[in-house]
Each structure stands twice: as C-alpha cells, then as structure tokens.
Automatic annotation (TrEMBL):
One protein family per Pfam: DinB
Name of the featured protein: DinB family protein
Keywords (A to Z) from UniProt: Metal-binding
Listed InterPro entries: DinB (IPR007837), DinB/YfiT-like (IPR034660)
Organism: Algoriphagus machipongonensis
Ranges that cross the membrane: none
GO molecular function, one term: metal ion binding
Family: Belongs to the DinB family.
Amino acid sequence: METQIMNPIISKDQLLSHWQGHRSLSRRTLEKFPEKELFEFNIGGMRTYADLVKEMLAIAAPSAKGLETGEWEPLEEEKKELKTKEGLLKAWDDATELINKSWANIPEEVFQKQVVAFGQYESSGYQLVAYAIENEVHHRGQGYVYLRALGIEPPFFWERD
C-alpha cells in the first residue's frame, strides 16, 4: 500500500533547513573547544566531546545517503582517523555537503516509508531524520555542559543559522 502525502506540516526543504540549522550550531559548539579538552575532558564518565561528535558524524550523512539510495552501511562511530579538531571540523563540513547532495535526491515518499537504518534501527524515513536531529541536540547539550565546566561560554542555542 502506497502512502500518500496530502498536506505536510513542513516541506522537505524546510526539514533540511531545520536540520542544517542544528548542524551549524553543533559546528560552532565544536569550534569553541580547546584541542586538548576536546579529546580528553569529560564529566561523570561521559564520553569526550570528540567522541560525541564522531557519533553524530556516524549518523548524519550516512542517514541521508541511506534514505537516498536504500543502501545502508554499518554504523561506524569510532572514526579513529579523526585525531584533531581540524580533522573533526573538516569531517563535519564534508558531512554537511554530503547531506545536501543526498537530500536533493531523496524522494518525498521515502520519509513515510519504513526503513531499517544501519541494519538495526527500524522507523519511517522521517523518524530517522528526527532521531538524527534529537541525538545531535542531546550530545550538543553535553558539549554545552563541558564548555561551561571549562569556563567557556557556549554559542547561543537559538542562533541556528
């Protein structure tokens, strides 16, 4: 049975803009971290912000690519090759570009269909994108706590440009 989209609350392009607004804010959060603390500082046994960023990278562009092609790579969060702040920022920018390229080719009906992302996460395409956004907001919040603990003012959370 085919799902028909009658009146979506937001358009596909608006959803991408919303997501990229969060990604822009997360990138500015990453920029605020001193290199050493990015890879070493944590509170209460939580992962470092570098490790949280690697998880966000493992989900974002691969989700857009999977929605575009229907092919899913295994979830790969370690990203051992990313050992510097500069490397993380470049990977972030590359992922943003990949999301934009894939997004243009995702048929709107994919957002209503069930997918099994990364061989483990079953949801509609829309729910997968919502998960990617929510996961990023959650981890960015941890980054804000880290920055404040380090005496660094995080970016204003409402400035998502």
